[in-house]
Amino acid sequence: MITQYTKNDIPIILSVINDAASKYKGIIPDNCWHDPYMSEQELINEFNNSVHMFGYKSNDKLIGVMGIQKVQDVTLIRHAYTLTQYQGTGVGKSLLEYFLQTNQSTCFLVGTWRDATWAIQFYKKFSFVLQTKKQTAQLLSKYWKISSNQIENSVVLKK
Predict the structure, then answer these.
(1) Dist. CA 133–CA 123, nearest whole Å
(2) Which residues contact residue 39 at a Cβ distance below 8 angstroms, ignoring those fewer than 6 apart?
(3) Hey, how many other C-beta atoms are within 10 angstroms of the C-beta on 145?
């Protein structure tokens, strides 16, 4: 069910990401939203920056993706998305549990939009701890390559 994906799979990975990310429209600041949410070049750049993408397939259809990226002394959860029609069915849970079980000795960080309350609650169910605004800014600056506007509108959870 869960397998690693490569650059050869970019079109199907993007179809999942961009479908699922539609949930952010109107939630995140307008100057952070664009359509498509992630471009092909952005995903290529993520692969080139050592993001490893994994997917959850059901009935031979990719329905969820989640990436990990080892940066310095932590592992970042990157680009966790489930097709809209499958959200809430345990796909994200399966992917996250897979990472947590296969990387037990690492510190995990995940960044998400501050107003994406559903995502924050999801990670809290797995004992991720919401960091303070100051901690968030420090962690995002240290481990991610994102704009100051995105830093201002994001949170980090740690496990």
Answers:
(1) 17
(2) none
(3) 9
Among 77, 58, 149, which residue's Cα sits nearest to residue 119?
77
The fold of the 2-158 domain, in CATH, is Aminopeptidase (3.40.630)
State the Cα–Cα distance between residues 158 and 107, nearest whole angstrom.
7
Tell me the domain boundaries of the chain.
2-158
How does pLDDT run across 85-125, given as a tens digit for each residue?
999 999 999 999 999 998 777 899 999 999 999 999 999 99
Q: How many CA atoms lie within 13 A of 158 on its CB side?
A: 11
pTM to 2 decimal places: 0.91
Confidence of residue 35 (pLDDT cuts 50, 70, 90): confident
The closest alpha carbon to 73, from 123, 23, 120, 143, belongs to 143
Give the pairing type, strands 52-58 and 2-5: antiparallel
Nearest to 16 by CA among 66, 51, 59: 66
